[in-house]
Design brief:
The protein contains eleven helices and no strands. The model has no long low-confidence stretch (mean pLDDT 87). Helix 4 crosses helix 5. The chain is mainly alpha-helical. It has one domain: Orthogonal Bundle (MetI-like fold), CATH 1.10.3720.
Length: 231
């Protein structure tokens, strides 16, 4: 118990002092997570929109697969991507393994289903009569689509917030594809795992405090935008 209390107090002091190593690790995590989330948004938001209004054979099956992918373990994604970017993989010559780009690729695969599913849910809540009325009044398909996106904007933002919260706290992909290289691919979660293995709890607890604070902030934003969507 004394070890826990001492580690917690030391961690608080480390956070207050803005320890350079801690800040560097947090910076890497934020950079990778933001890029992953924005990249997934470029794919996931249009995909969710297309699923909401598209009519094609097997649509229910595609949505079922999408919902299944929401629970895809990060270790499975890590193994899948590793097989492609390792030296013996198809993309081995690109030297992606153990780089930030490798982590980003894995995280994008992880959260595209999240962004797509949440966007689909947000757009599905919008009354179809909005789009039909816009088309009747002379708007083209692009203008009508943009109007629907504006109506569903809070739900879409909530999707991005949820996706960011998913990747900022994941460890499997970051460890397997990034290699936990100090100052380069070491994220908050992988650093915490390393410090725990070393028996050095101060930095691990400090990073845990930062991570919990970020996660709390993300959840507050998510519930705020979710509430605006339902209002």
């Amino acid at each position: 118990m004394d070890l826990l209390i001492d580690s917690f107090l030391s961690a608080i002091l480390l956070v207050i002092a803005l320890d350079a190593e801690m800040i560097a690790i947090v910076g890497v995590s934020l950079k990778i997570s933001v890029i992953s989330t924005l990249t997934a948004a470029v794919v996931g938001v249009p995909a969710g929109f297309g699923l909401a209004f598209g009519q094609f054979a097997g649509k229910r099956f595609v949505i079922t697969i999408l919902n299944t992918l929401l629970a895809l373990p990060t270790v499975v994604i890590g193994l899948f991507v590793y097989a492609f970017i390792s030296r013996r993989g198809i993309f081995g010559p690109l030297d992606l393994l153990y780089t930030q780009n490798a982590i980003i690729i894995g995280q994008v695969i992880l959260i595209i289903p999240v962004v797509t599913a949440f966007t689909l849910a947000a757009i599905s809540r919008i009354d179809e009569r909005y789009r039909k009325t816009a088309l009747t009044l002379g708007a083209n398909r692009r203008q009508a689509g943009w109007m629907i996106i504006r109506e569903a904007r809070f739900g879409i933002v909530a999707a991005l917030v949820a996706a960011f919260g998913r990747v900022i706290s994941e460890v499997g992909i970051s460890m397997m594809l990034g290699g936990n290289i100090k100052g380069f691919t070491r994220t908050m979660t992988t650093a915490m795992a390393l410090e725990y293995d070393k028996g050095a709890f101060t930095l691990a607890v400090a990073l845990g405090i930062v991570l919990l604070s970020l996660s709390f902030g993300m959840n507050m934003l998510f519930h705020f935008f979710q509430g605006r969507t339902q209002a």
